[in-house]
Amino acid sequence: MKNLIVQKYGGTSVGSIEKIKNVANRIVEQKRKGKHIVVIVSAMGKTTDQLVDLAHQISAEPSGREYDVLLSTGEQVSIALLAMAIEKIGEKVISLTGPQVGLQTSSVHKRARITGIDDKRIIGELKQNKIVIVAGFQGVDENNDITTLGRGGSDTSAVAIAAGLDADCCEIYTDVDGVFTADPRVVPEARKLDEISYDEVLEMASLGAGVLHPRSVELAEKFNIPLIVRSSFNENSGTKITTDDNMEEAIVKGIALDDAIGKISIMEVPDQPGIAYRLFSMLANNNIHVDMIVQNTNRAAINDISFTVDEDELQEALEVAQKFAFEVEAQKVEFDKGVAKLSIIGNGIVANPEISSKFFETLYKLGVNIHTISTSETRISVLVDKHISKKAMIALHDSFKLKNN
Ligand code: ADP
Ligand code: ASP
Ligand code: MG
After folding, report:
1. Tell me, what CATH number does 36's domain have?
2. Ligand 1 interacting residues, C-beta cut-off 6 A
3. Ligand 2 centre from 211 Cα, in Å?
4. DSSP letter at 175?
5. Is 366 helix (H, G, I), strand (E, B) or coil?
6. What angle do CA 260, 219, 176 make, to 5 degrees?
7. What is the pLDDT of residue 405?
8. What mean pLDDT comes out for the span 335-358?
9. Which among 14, 145, 185, 387 would be 20 to 30 A from 116, CA to CA?
10. Nearest CA to 40 among 209, 175, 157?
């Protein structure tokens, strides 16, 4: 649709009635410039955390279906309040839930993937000159059950809707001025980036920079949706996500820290072909996303296998690991929530020996013990103890002079 922008406002941006009124004013201002506007909203402030906490007061492992019914309520509150605030200013508006806008997903509860959008309802409302407010983070599966897209998933709702409607751009409004060289709450000296490539920001988001949901970046790149991250509290220009990545120059673009992970170790696994396949296919069949994997050969014919998973999936992953250990007669399964993954990101950095040397030197000087290392063309990641991870992040930011680049 022509002259259409999609805006997404995160939890902090709608964290109070005052903030909702502020967001309503900003939206109406854009609307009065003659634009069609679709707005995706998250739950207010810490609402989703509070809902998770309520669920866990009943059960450590509630069923995914009921968990999603509960968590999706947060967004329903904020869309209604925002629509009321816009009505009050005097513009035509309608709030719609994920199912009402036909946001179809897979049936994997708690981390469903969007499979399609039926844009008829939204387009019909826009044609009546209404501002359309859509609940983020939620959709509906083929059984007509409510699903959620994983924590932070409203960004992905926004990009998917922008792609479905062929919007001019998708603006992600949040509580910081854009994408920074590191989380500005951990590294006060972090610098805002005016531009960053899809690939780099995808790597940062996947490695724990919570500013964007990784899947939203993948979709924006795939469907060529211009993506901008900006603050909902000021008029600063934010960060533009671009396709223009300068592959020539190997520089560290940013640092990410993910401390919401857990490490699972399966001790004394028989050293036979097919063992790793068996474990990782069992995990895949349970839709558990596995990250850093290490296998150590202890002695003849016996290995230890370790891997990391998101904290949210730790309980399920542990159950699978225990089943596997029992089946292959491994000695035991252990888990550790005291680790964090620390990464540096930038095109071509792994091929640059000075960068890896400086990275490991910085950690060594801080006395950081590294549990696991993994690399790709665009990143170096290590698993370190959680208690020193933030300090290490600040030290790396300093070593790579990210403040002054
Ligand atoms: P929202 O509720 O708007 O979706 P989030 O909390 O999901 O907000 O994301 C914004 C937060 O992401 C910021 O407050 C910041 O602490 C964190 N963050 C982590 N890494 C980065 C980074 N590299 N750049 C900017 N923000 C980051
Ligand atoms: N409300 C959800 C969450 O807190 C989704 C989002 O904010 O993007 O994870
Ligand atoms: Mg978010």
Report:
1. 3.40.1160.10
2. 10-13, 42, 152, 174-176, 179-180, 182-185, 204, 209-211, 254
3. 11
4. S
5. coil
6. 55
7. 65
8. 93
9. 14
10. 157
